[in-house]
Input
Amino acid sequence: MLRKVWIITVVLALGVGLGIQSYSASAAPRFKSMCPTSNFPDLSQSVGAGTGYDKPYLSIACTASEVIITSNGMTSFPFVKMTPNSLKEQEWVWRIPLSPKIAEKSRSIRNVLGTLGFTVSGVPIYGPTEGPSPASEAYGDPVYNKVLDACGGHTGPASEYHHHAISLTLACNLAQQVVLGYALDGFPIYSNIGCLDKACTQTVKLTSGYTQIGDPKSYSWNAYVYVNSNKNSVLDECNGRIQPNGTYGYHVTSTFPYIIGCYKGTPTKQIGRAGAAMAPMNPPKRVESTEKPETKDSSDDSNDSKSSPTPSKSATPKPLIKLFPSPSPSTSPKS
Output
């Protein structure tokens, strides 16, 4: 018996608006109403990566138990080259639970390389650590080491653009979204402003609970420690919290771990390109940003990770890239 699937497809290409495919009238209204298609923006009028690049493409489909996102991984904003790697179209297919649940025990993402989630604009989200090269910055904090563009991302060894942080500037096309993305465990990612009640009549600026104790230039996870707090403005170890409506959600922050600190739920094991390990890194070269668009020339914690050395002595922090202007309470997400 054919399984009935309710599908809404958003085609993100210049001049093409929101397209809605027909679905069976007998499709279960329960998961029809739950399918989070409204959380994904229409980027048909976005400027895209630049001249010569494909426009972003994104489709969202729901079954009774899963949300399926297909994306070509292209940015909706001008591409600025921050690494030696070019930008190329990808074949991403992510599957996440339609109704995620908090696991009995959180899952570590320490030094995991590869996809931990994705933005609602169809771009992968990586953790707060880089790869093994250059050796002087091995597994370092990419924000601290200033290797990200103004939107909080750069391209990896497979020419895949990905975020290590998320900027709330308008040019990055996420500032107006209530949900900025999803972790692979299915829980949403919100901005750094949170609601204190169901009606969202009161809001608070949320902050990370991690404190810097060492030099994040390399082995970033050794340079920070999580400190418990009773303040309602401080997030948990996974960089999230229980929302006023009882659901869980992650929040972006201006400091480590920036997006996700650990999995609060159980991540779905991805297949195909989305489940592949991060490609080996080429010998690195520092690329200075010109701030001009360039003309065109992973989900499981079994991905490559390494044990970290003893944390170095406390060092004076370098200035962080300011990626997160504080929105006014009037633009706060209703969590």
